[in-house]
Amino acid sequence: MTEPSDFTIPEATLTNYVITGIQEGRGPLPDQKPLRQEINAWATNPENVDQVNLFLLALARFQAIPYDEKLSYFQIAGIHGLPFKPWDEKTESQSPETRNGYCTHNSILFPTWHRPYLLLYEQRLYEIMVKDIIPTLPGDHDKLIAQAQQWRLPYWDWAVKNADVPDIVRSPNIQVLTSTGPTVIPNPLHAFRAPGPMGDYDIEAVKVDTGRNIFLLPFNIAKETSRYPPYWPPEPEKPKASTVTAWTEGVRLDDNITDALRGADWYNNPKPEDPEKPEPPKYPNDIGEVVYRLFTREYFSKYSYFASTNYEKNEEAEDRLADFLSLEAIHNNLHLWLGGGGPRDKSESGPGHMSIVPVAAFDPIFWLHHNNIDRLFAIWQTLNPNSWFSDPSEQLEDPKGNWSTAPHTIPTPKTPLAPFHDGQGTYFDSDKVRDWLKFGYSYPELQPWRFYVNGVLDEQEYIKHILEEVKILYGGHIVETFARTFNEEKHEDYIVNVEYERFALNGEPFVIHILIANSKVGQVSNFSSPLASNACPNCEVQQQDHALSTGQVPITHALFHQLTEGDTKSLAAGPGGRLKFGRDVIKRHLRPDFYSGLPQTDRPKEGLHWKVTNLYGEEIPREAIPSVKVSFAQGMAQHFRGKGVISSYGEYTLWDEITEGL
């Protein structure tokens, strides 16, 4: 292991590391590729015992490679942000004021850049399995090599009903089979562990001036990655000794992640009678629903809106109200739910590694999370094969830039995805990574080789199969409820759209909470990087030309429950017990102040409202963040009971009266 006193990252050599993906293990069917599997199903399958063992041993070895080596876990994780050094090339940052690594956020390149990043990580693990691990193990080496060739990096599907942190991630220690027999080792999926404080390896503390307080996130003292570490008080208040210890030694409060994923903070879910045996929440989180919406027909008007939170305000965009949702917006919420600082307005925990862009990739859970993002991207590509951003009208300015891209660049499919190199000695670009199958992997829903008839792909059956799988995984309770309630007929659908300036607080992350009465029904997260402390006060990057980002919170499900239960039930009671879900009912529920003449018992105490908090529990005054705009739209949805028929959404129109004066 590299000693801190010896630590330097050498300049890139002339020989670039070539990323090809794992090309072994194909077949037996023509064009068949090994699958990246869901980690819970994969890890508990007895047939995968050897693969699980190889993965854990390889990851542990990967994390122990000296940090001054280019192909170490430390340096590859550092590509995403800190320690802000070039990787596999000799360059300087094109946007130093933003303190960005190479990663692309709020950019149309968001999904494509992360694809070769995952390939790099997966390929390194495979190389370590074959070259370093298998030769040391007892048993049939040919069999183990065959298992390694079939292995692909697993993903974690956090959008399924009652999602939980995988058991294989939760355990601090784990048993593996080594050359000396069964051995218990620190679980490399649970945390990344350094031999000393990470500040010795150029990982900096993140200092945040909120205008009222100065907070410190002391990643420099951490020896391990943390999820939901203790709240570090603002300066000049001194932290407790236990807080310093927890940050130094690392803490992973994975039950908090489960609460966030399942919706324990949402809709005022009742507390379980037995805390030791928590039941799934009565009102689940909306992750599955928003993922489901990604795959419904024509939800997005074009690729750029699906791919990124980056928003270019124009007349066309204002007419496409569904476009406020995006794959990146879902990803942003997950980072805060996994790291801390997102689910609750205030808590005893603060943001950990996954919540802060420059250090997120050091947490091993980052790779499982982003592999799921790549899977959702691949599914959407298959359902929308002609949607891309080759046309200039599809291309959006990247206002922030990153290590390799100057601010205000307009990325195209030919923009280099630095620092990743292909077999031709050039950088990858989005066109080169558009087809994931050529890199030797696919996902359970995406197995086209099963749908070949006489050598020709039956596209209709293949797409039908994908939609069936999507509906089973993510349609679930919501689709069943509305299909039954409205007898498969069209009905009103309601969404809250949010736009905000990504740099409204000088790049600090923040959360926009959407509430109805006392119930939080969703949030939009700004997952961003703070400006450098030495950035010039009036620098162009900091101003960002008021670049906008977007998010969306569907609230139809929340409204349904609120209007069919409790004090508000009378509002929606129609003839013959049929639910009334139209404009008058919704207006009365969301804007009760319009009906102040009604008795208090006939209306909720308060309707739709919103607030903004930073990751330290402070509510941000609206005058400090005037760029946040919340709008309300009504559309139409139609749901079906049959497993092969996907839902439809559309016909959205702004309903300004609902958000007037909020």
Automatic annotation (TrEMBL):
The keyword Metal-binding applies. Its cofactor is Cu(2+). Residues 105-122, 363-374 form the Tyrosinase copper-binding domain. It catalyses: 2 L-dopa + O2 = 2 L-dopaquinone + 2 H2O; L-tyrosine + O2 = L-dopaquinone + H2O. Residues 271-280 have a biased composition (Basic and acidic residues). The keyword Oxidoreductase applies. Its EC number is 1.14.18.1. This is tyrosinase.
